[in-house]
Each structure stands twice: as structure tokens, then as C-alpha cells.
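# nightly structure sweep
# worker-07 picked up a monomer target from the shared queue
# config: single-sequence mode, recycle default, output format = C-alpha cells
# input follows
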Amino acid sequence: MSTSLPPGHTVDERSPMSVTLKHDFGNDGSMRSIIVQGSPFVSYEYTNARPTIASAQILRRFKVNGVQAECGSKPLTASVFEFSLLQFDETWRLGRFFKF
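# output follows
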């Protein structure tokens, strides 16, 4: 089976159970996606890039570093973002995790 990736996307590393994709955004930095077979989690590592969170769904709750916050278009800096969508019984946590 052959698969092609969009321009700017490359396979950075691979093993029998995982793949690491690199997404190059040119002058806007890059992002690496670590995908492991069977894992419900996906990890992203940003280099000189600013991630944006957007959804067509209605937010039920939005917290920044554990404190209730308002959604808006102004940039926020935090270690942990947490949000729940009105249509689903799920809570998403996006955080900064460090390698040791």
C-alpha cells in the first residue's frame, strides 16, 4: 500500500508500532506528530510555531491553568488548556509536557 503525504509533511521516524510525522510550516515553524498504534493519545511537539485551537462545536466549559476562562481571538499562554464540548460527553486537555 502506497501513501503520499501533502507537501511539507514527511515521515521523520518510524517503528513497527509508531510513526512520527513532521509538518513544516516554512517561516511559521514546524510540528511533529507522534502516533502510536492503539493509543488513544496523540502527541505534538511545536518548534517556533503557535498552535491554534478551533472548533465548529459549542464549548460548554473552557479552563486555562485550571481557572474558568472566556473564549476569544486573543492569544493565551498557559501550561494546560481544558475544554468540554456541548454536544459530547468528553473533556479535552492540552498541556505542555516536558521530556526528562
